[in-house]
């Protein structure tokens, strides 16, 4: 029932073989960058909050070789026709759509005065697209890492993640926070990444107990054009903060919030209540993890899901079903939706020796309700973007 994770080595070989067959060259530079899931702290990275994601054992791999021209030729396993990206001038949004993540990253290097040489590249991935697992952030971080390799200039992890986030804003039109690109860039095996989204400081939180694992369940649905819903949620939080009269959500107490209930519309109030509650839950979750208090951690995960469903309204019946079904199963510690929502995936923290049985029960229950199966895989926190 658990879908296997393709080992990175196999993805690297696959990308190298595809590069050779598509462009006739052997790879000289190969970059890997993982997707992410978020354990807790949802829709608060753009509110100066704390988030607790980690890099997963599924990744984007780009294999490449210099071509001596002033353009990048790049294809992927789902678009072997590929794209040609001219260098030496400002990048512009163009077709195919997926190439814009690359163009945005190239533009980030250009704006820093770093000259990028021409190369041929092939992209493969073990990350499902549209599953809320940050395949786009992984693509951006893999490209930025590849360009570091080709130019010999290391940006530094934080700078690289911020460059990738700007590519998403300017070339994909998604006003995302910093969580996805930070998780892909800063990932470490057996570590969660606590990100203070106000200071952009990171603290690694160990997650190494082999008795525990994390299941990612992809609903395989995407209900709303997430761009529109996402931007609307972000706007609501800005309206809420303005009505409260503070400049950062980190300075807003529950009392501040309750004092302003009449000063904003009911929807903005509920969105605001999610932000204040989720910041507190994330801090509580880190304390619970450090103190091995898993019943507290699980409770906080369920409370986070409830708040995303009822107050922030970014869940959907498929996500709610998976969380509800997980909740009753032996060996489950906690479950919630993860990522932007409106479809996508849930994250379930559980005992490793029960993972197979839990996955089987979730698949059966989901299939009975919706008529098709979710994809479920287990993952531990994995290494972030790197050259291999
Ligand atoms: C998307 C965004 C992130 C974050 C999450 C919700 O993944 O890219 O920045 O806001 O949604 O937590």
Low-confidence spans: none
Largest sheet: 6 strands, mixed
* Number of helices in the DSSP assignment: 11
- β-strand percent reads 15-25%
- Give the integer mean of the pLDDT values: 97
The general outline is globular
Instruction: Give the C-alpha Rg.
Output: 21 Å
Total E-strand runs: 13
Bound molecules: alpha-D-galactopyranose
Structural category:
alpha+beta
| Quaternary structure type | single chain
Succession of helices and strands: HEEEEEHEHHHEEEHHHHHEEHEE
The percentage helix is 40-55%
Question: How far apart, in Å, are the first and last alpha carbons?
Answer: 31 Å
Largest sheet, spatial ordering of strands: 5-4-6-3-1-13
General description of the model:
The protein is of the alpha+beta class. It is 42% helix and 24% strand. It has eleven helices and 13 strands. It has helices at residues 8-23, 99-111, 135-151, 157-172, 179-186, 226-244, 254-258, 266-290, 294-310, 317-327, 355-370, and strands at 29-38, 50-51, 53-66, 71-76, 79-86, 119-125, 191-196, 201-206, 212-222, 332-338, 343-351, 375-379, 386-387. The strands form three sheets. It has a six-stranded mixed β-sheet with strand order 5-4-6-3-1-13. Strand 10 and strand 11 (343-351) form a beta hairpin. Helix 3 (135-151) packs across helix 5 (179-186). The longest helix has 25 residues, at 266-290. The protein is globular. The relative contact order is 0.18. Bound molecules: alpha-D-galactopyranose (GLA).
